[in-house]
Each structure stands twice: as C-alpha cells, then as structure tokens.
Specification:
The protein is of the alpha+beta class. The chain contains nine helices and seven strands; from the N terminus they run H-H-H-H-H-H-E-H-E-E-H-E-E-H-E-E. Strand 6 and strand 7 form a beta hairpin. Helix 6 packs across helix 9. The two termini are 61 Å apart.
Length: 489
C-alpha cells in the first residue's frame, strides 16, 4: 500500500505527537512521584519530628510537675500534671497515627506502653501521697525515671529513623529528578531527531519526484519526448507523472503530425509550383510557333495550379484565424440547395475526368438556412473534394439534403430546433473504425493524402454555426459525411 502525501504527513505528525504524549506522560508520572515524596516529607516526616519534640518536652514537663507535687504535696501541681497529660496524650495519639501510616506500628506501641506505665506509676505515688502513707520514695523515683528514659529513648530512636527516612526521600527525590531530567532530555533529543528524519523522508519523497518532473520538462523544452518518467510513489506524484507521460506522448504525436503537415504542405506547394514553372517554360517555347490552342491549354494548367496553391494557403490562413478566435462569420438567410448546386458545378469537370457519377437529391427543400454562405461553401468544397479524391473511376458520389428536427445545445441548454441535414456519400475505400473518432482532428490524414486540415476546418465552421458534423462508414467500402445547420428563424 502506497501512502499519499497527505497520509504521510498525518502519519509523521502522529508519530511526533505520540512521542510528545509519551514524554508528557512520563514527565507527569515522575513529577507525581516527586510530589508524593515532597508531601511525605512535609506532611509525615516533618510532623513526626515536631510531634516527637513536643512529646519529649511534654515528658520533661510532666516529670517537673509530678516531682513538685511529691515534694510540696500541693494539689495544684497535680492538676497541672493532669492538664499537661491531656495535651501529651493528644500528641501521643497523633504520633501513633503518623507511625501507623508510615508502617512503624511496633515503635508506636512501645512508646505508648512506656508512657502509660509512667502515668500509672505517677497516679500510684500520688494516691500514697494523698493518704500520707509511708512508701519507698526512692524506689518510685527510680522506676519513674526509668520509664521516662525508656520513652525518651523510643522518641530518640523514632526521631533518628524519621530523619533517616527524610534523608532517603530527599535523596530519592533528587535521583528521581535527575533521572526524569535525563530521560526527558533523551526523549526530547530523540523527538527532535525523529521529527527531522520524518521531515527529511517526507521532503525527499516529494522533492525527488518533483526534480524528476523538472528534468522531464527540461527535456521537453529541448524537443525530446521519448523518455517517460517512472515514479511509483507517492500516488499523487505518480498520477502527475502519468499525466506528464501522456502529455509527452501527445506532444510527440503532435510534433510528428506537425512534421507530416509541413511535409504535406511543402508537397502541396512544390507540386503546383513545379507544374507552373514547367508550364511557363513550355509557354515560352510555344511563343515561337504561337499555336493558340496549346497556349490556352498551358494557361489553363497554370490557372488551375495557382487555384490549388491559393486553396492550400487559404486553409492554413483559415485555420490560424479560427484557432486565434478572430474568424468572421457573415450570417444570413440563404438557400442551401442553391449553394450545393454551385459547389457541384465547380467539381463537375473533375467528376467527368474520372468518369464519376454525381447524384443530387434535393428532397424538395424550400426553406432557407441561417448560414455564412462562403464558410459553408468551403465545407462543401472540402467534403466533395475528398469524396472525389478517394472515389475510383466509374464510382459514384451522392449528395442528399433533408429537413428534420434535432436537439441542439444553446447556452448550456438543450432545445429542439428544425435543421437542414446534408449528407455526402462516396464509393471509396471507406474509413477504418479505429479512425472514425479522430478523422476530424487537426493534421489527421488517411491514405497519406492532403494536409489533414480540411475536415478539421469543416468541423470548426459547422460548430460555429451551432450544427453537428460526423461520418459513418463500414470500414471497407464507401463513407458518408453528414452535417447539419439550423433553419432560418
């Protein structure tokens, strides 16, 4: 499957977009990981350290109040102890939830157990103090101090573990950031390289065929039409190359037709000129004896060949005017039957010389046509001349004229109108079927006769009149040319 230029561009942009999306997704994941680490440091580790500091300070405060109470037996100190204990308990609950969230549940239980034992020991001593009962004060003091030291030890271990976890997270965040930066840089450079390669590939697939087209055009400017372009991809350029090759073939064909036309015109001019030159030479030689009959015959030959030259030149001039769009048409109501009779009278001598029978069926046409008599006369001369040219001796040329209804195109709309149809049939060799549709093309010749302009000019004239011209032939014997012109309104 060969991708078009549009699909290649879309595929290239999609690949670049895919890389950009992957890069963005990776960046988002890494930034989210960094964000989680930073939030963990700020929300868990930092709060755990602050809470541990408050608990340690709270233990020292509790220790201070319970000592004062034991020494002074003042109940206010015991109340302050209980108030401080409530705040201490809240911090203890908070640090337990933080440690549970961090997965350090055992350390939280050990800390809570030591603190609860310390509180129970203080309450036990306070009850003995209130009852004024004798007890081992030194033993209680040592037990309480041991429990406080145990709790503070747990707090210190907890603080060290939290600081270590914080350092690990900070180091991990740095590593993640460095890795993300490295990967993003690699992917960015890779994306840039990929974009350049895709742009280069797409540009090359377009640039190379265009260069080949430019080279082919330069070959055409040098008059070389043989070389064909072989471009398989992309499809648009391939289609353009196909059209270019067709153009080359057509230009080559036109060039060959032009060469044939020039050769034909040269032959058409050279033969009459040679005849005229020879006739003039003979005429000069005949001036000595001056036989009038011979001089008259030579002058007739000169006149006929001059007329032939004028006809050839007029065809070329008419062609150039028509193609330039400056041909003038003097339209008027005119009897087509009368015009055909005039044209037949002009070719009657040729028919007699070749022993060809001329038939004319007017079909009782009395209506006039809206035509340029001179231009339609030129069409009749071309068609009759061709019919006599290709019809062998003792053949037949028939002209028929009828009136009928036809559908004509007018300003892009089809409308029914009455037309006069003229048909000219001959008994010549016929036209092969493969040449039927190209017989009216410029420079197209059959049997290597003529200049190939007569039928082309005839079609231009009939089209200018709003009519149609065509030919029918079985390809073996005889042809019939038809044309229509509109009736006068």
């Amino acid at each position: 499957m060969k991708l078009t230029i549009f699909k290649r561009l879309i595929a290239g942009f999609f690949l670049i977009l895919l890389v950009v999306v992957a890069l963005s997704a990776y960046s988002v994941l890494k930034f989210r990981e960094l964000n989680q680490a930073i939030r963990s440091i700020s929300a868990v580790d930092s709060e755990t350290l602050r809470c541990a500091d408050r608990l340690r300070d709270g233990l020292y405060t509790l220790r201070k109040f319970e000592r004062k109470y034991v020494i002074s037996e003042d109940k206010d100190f015991l109340d302050q102890f209980h108030e401080t204990e409530k705040s201490f308990q809240r911090d203890l609950d908070q640090i337990k939830s933080l440690l549970d969230a961090a997965g350090n549940h055992d350390r939280a239980l050990l800390l809570r157990d030591a603190c609860e034992k310390y509180s129970m020991k203080v309450e036990e001593e306070a009850e003995l103090v209130r009852d004024k009962a004798g007890y081992n004060n030194r033993g209680f003091e040592e037990e309480k101090q041991a429990l406080v030291d145990e709790a503070i030890g747990h707090l210190n271990v907890l603080r060290e573990a939290t600081e270590k976890a914080t350092d690990n997270r900070i180091r991990m965040s740095g590593e993640v950031g460095q890795e993300a930066l490295r990967v993003i840089m690699i992917m960015s450079v890779s994306s840039l390289i990929m974009a350049v390669l895709i742009a280069f590939f797409i540009s090359r697939t377009i640039h190379r065929p265009v260069r080949l087209l430019i080279r082919g055009i330069k070959e055409i400017t040098r008059g070389r039409f043989e070389k064909h372009l072989e471009i398989t991809s992309p499809p648009e350029i391939n289609e353009l190359a196909g059209a270019f090759n067709n153009m080359c073939d057509r230009l080559k064909e036109v060039d060959e037709l032009k060469a044939d036309f020039i050769a034909g015109v040269s032959h058409e001019f050279r033969t009459p000129l040679a005849v005229i030159r020879e006739a003039i030479g003979l005429y000069i030689e005949s001036l000595e004896n001056r036989p009038a009959e011979k001089q008259q015959k030579l002058l007739s030959i000169i006149e006929e060949e001059c007329e032939r030259l004028i006809t050839s030149v007029n065809r070329v001039l008419n062609l150039s005017r028509m193609e330039a769009g400056i041909a003038e048409y003097h339209m008027e109501k005119y009897s087509l039957t009368h015009l055909i009779a005039i044209c037949l009278s002009k070719v009657q001598p040729i028919a007699q010389r070749k022993n060809i029978t001329l038939e004319y069926n007017t079909g009782n046409i009395v209506s006039n046509a809206f035509i340029d008599p001179e231009k339609i006369g030129l069409v009749l001369d071309n068609l009759l001349g061709n019919a006599l040219k290709f019809t062998t001796e003792k053949g037949r040329v028939s002209v028929k004229i009828i009136e009928r209804e036809a559908v004509l195109s007018n300003a892009g709309r089809n409308e029914k109108r009455r037309v006069i149809e003229v048909s000219i049939s001959d008994t010549g060799p016929g036209i092969p079927e493969k040449h039927i549709h190209e017989i009216f093309d410029k420079y197209r010749k059959l049997h290597e006769k003529g200049t190939g302009l007569g039928l082309y000019i005839s079609r231009q004239i009939i089209n200018a009149h709003g009519g149609e011209i065509w030919v029918e032939s079985n390809g073996k014997t005889g042809s019939t040319f038809f044309f229509t012109v509109p009736l006068s309104l």
